[in-house]
Amino acid sequence: MSDYIFLFDLDSTITQKEILPEISSKIGKLSEMRRLTEATMRGELPFKTSFIKRVEILSDVPVSEVNKLVASIPLNKCITEFIMKNKDRCYIVTGNLDIWISGLMQRIGMKNHYYCSKAETKNDHISKIISVVDKELMVKQFVQPLVVVGDGDNDSGMAKFAEVAIGFGGVRDIAPSLIKCIDYAFFSDKKCADFLTALL
Question: What integer best gives the mean pLDDT of the chain?
Fold first, then answer.
């Protein structure tokens, strides 16, 4: 048995959709959100700058409503099942806000197994962003060998420090910067999960 710790990106790796564009489509701000999201995924905008701008777009939506929407988002079944079966060795590392994703984390049994950005709320709306996760800094804190799975530019920092780096392109194209850092690429949810199982 290996002693790998498995780290997963959330959007388009565990979920079948990008979370922020999905929410923005409900409030008629999809094109604006998609432009920012795509530029960020390609590495044209720093994640932190882009994320703060994207949070501003959604700031009018009640936090409880966003949390409920995110909790019901469709998931990549096989990857999610792998995580749920091996949750003691799996962690999710995402730029998304704690107040938005807590319901989803509870749904997949990862309540205490995720690292994310944080915000404060007042009257069910975001009052202040406290922190934005830097995935590269986050992975440097782990002491056991890592398997990292992601799809975007901001996953490349994690991939560089992984013993096994995997790009998942089952939902969207793997970011060019990430392709340079990965050992394997999978475009099927099942094949990715089968490979992860073989690493246990």
Answer: 92
Own/partner long-range contacts of 20-23 (Cβ < 8 Å, ≥24 apart): 20/54, 20/57, 20/58, 20/96, 22/69, 22/73, 23/58, 23/61, 23/66, 23/69, 23/70
pTM recorded for the entire structure: 0.92
**Looking at the predicted structure, is the pLDDT value of residue 72 above 90?**
yes
First to last CA, the chain: 6
Q: Which helix (H) or strand (E) holds 130?
A: strand 125-131
- The CATH number of residue 56's host domain is 3.40.50.1000
Task: Find the DSSP H helices in 15-152.
Answer: 19-25, 30-41, 47-57, 63-71, 77-85, 98-107, 135-139
Summarize pLDDT for 5-62 with one digit per residue, the tens: 999 999 999 999 888 888 888 778 888 888 887 888 778 888 888 888 888 888 888 9
Cα Dmax for the chain: 49
- The whole domain housing 143 covers 5-198
Secondary structure of 143-198 in the HEC alphabet? CCCEEEEECCHHHHHHHCCCCEEEEECCCCCCCHHHHCCCCEEECCHHHHHHHHHH
Provide the number of structural domains found in the chain: 1
